[in-house]
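User: Predict the complex with zinc ion.
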Amino acid sequence: MKKWRVFSQRLVVAVIPILIVAAALTGCANREAEWDIQNPYAGVDWAKYQQHKANFHTHTTLSDGSGTPQEVIDRYHARGVTILALTDHDTMKTECTTWPWQAFDRDPEILGMVAIEGNEISRVHHIGSYFNDYGEADVDSEDAVLKEIGRRGGLAVLFHPGRYEKSVEWYVEMYRTYPHLIGFEIYNQGDRYPNDRKTWDSILADRGIERSVWGFSNDDMHNPRTHLGSNWNIMLLPELSAEWVRRGIEDGAFFFVYAPEGHKGAPLPVIKSITVDLQKGVIHIDATGYESIEWISQGIVVHRGDRVTLSELSTLGRYIRAEIRAADSGSIVGTQPFRIHPLAK
Ligand SMILES: [Zn+2]
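Assistant: Here is the predicted structure with zinc ion placed in the model:
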């Protein structure tokens, strides 16, 4: 009996530490995420996906551009742009989209490009319309335009908002009402409307909106000699196809680029990967060829560096986004916003 008691005491002494360690391990494995971070790049396989240049706002002689569709396509192709939407105004010269490219003796497949059918619906706030053939819009409101783009199964982006006098509340209401309205043009033809990034930040910070709005940088090219080449977007794609381009701009799996020196200027910073740690609330950008990385929330720079720990920030709103800046060229590669929310423990 005495022997058994000693044995059982030893057993307890031996087992308790094991139980403690096991409990700790189990607790670790089941530990819940402390942050909800909506990462637009979550689906990107950084080892396999390719980075493609895209321009989503371009004019030709079929509206008020000075380059023919052939010339415009060829010039973008020569600069390594592989995704291009010709978005002539619906209010001039043509009542349809500048489409298909074969009508202008160009075959995107032979060129190694993806052509996106589109238009700039221009009777009210100019709106980029994609993946549909909406042409002549005989309308008197943005609601009518967006309803029609939705009815045709297309996607929409609000162009050069700085040209209009719309309030942040108006934009928020548009984004709340139309899920296929996915973007906001934050760089246009170089940087004609710098305040558009402030408006974008205000929309993202607004309590009335529960989703992200993607920022686009577009040439709004009218003259191939002067307007082509300081703005583009970098899409992350497993294959170069219209289906994946559509998915990428719906999910926000792209970067916006402002490059004052153009396609042939100093090399841009390259983002090699973005990783998000939900437990720790950390976002890390692995990039090369940059001078600084600025993190922006609520429209102000809240942190500098390749890694941000959300709990260490004194200012943090409903989103955070990063701008990766080159040393001398003034070039910027920007991420889309990560919507963030600390979870109750
Ligand atoms: Zn335009």
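The chain is about 25% helix and 30% strand.
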